[in-house]
Design a protein that fits this description.
Layout: H1 4-15, E1 18-19, H2 20-37, E2 47-50, E3 53-55, H3 57-63, E4 68-69, H4 82-95, H5 100-107, H6 111-117, E5 129-130, H7 132-140
Helix pairs in contact: 1-2, 1-4, 2-4, 2-5, 2-7
């Protein structure tokens, strides 16, 4: 299984530099669609429902303090299998040209983030996990 750093490094290598927020959302959607299309997690690191949408804390720790990213100090895009690359490529085809704010707004309308944030006031910090089961159920139904 690839790591979140491998997936993020692959996305940056394929799509070029982008904001940290956009990278977080693309990695999130890569995980979601891997669960649906491949019936397996793309990476093992957990995802949390932060105020600005889904965030993978391990990835955040790697790019903390940086607004725009062109590469990561961790991760190897070559660690993804052909099938994993195909999944990420399809995610990039659909979501890759969207802005970070558009992606964030989209996640704010979707059940996995909404359910994990239930009872938490808007804008308040939270480390509630977005479960793989909730992602599989929601995106599998689309």
């Amino acid at each position: 299984m690839a790591t979140v750093y491998d997936v993020a490094s692959y996305i940056l290598a394929k799509a070029g530099s982008m904001t940290a927020m956009k990278l977080q959302k693309l990695v999130y959607y890569a995980q979601a669609w891997s669960l649906v299309w491949d019936e397996t997690a793309l990476f093992g690191e957990h995802i949390e429902a932060w105020a600005n949408g889904p965030v993978i804390p391990a990835l955040y720790d790697c790019h903390k303090g940086e607004f725009k990213l062109c590469a990561l100090s961790l991760g190897d895009p070559n660690n993804l299998s052909d099938n994993e690359r195909d999944t990420v490529d399809k995610v990039l085809e659909f979501y890759g040209d969207k802005s970070s704010q558009w992606l964030s707004d989209l996640t704010h309308r979707e059940d996995p983030w909404l359910d994990a944030r239930r009872g938490i006031p808007a804008g308040q910090r939270s480390n509630q996990e977005i479960t793989l089961a909730s992602m599989m159920e929601y995106y599998g139904g689309l």
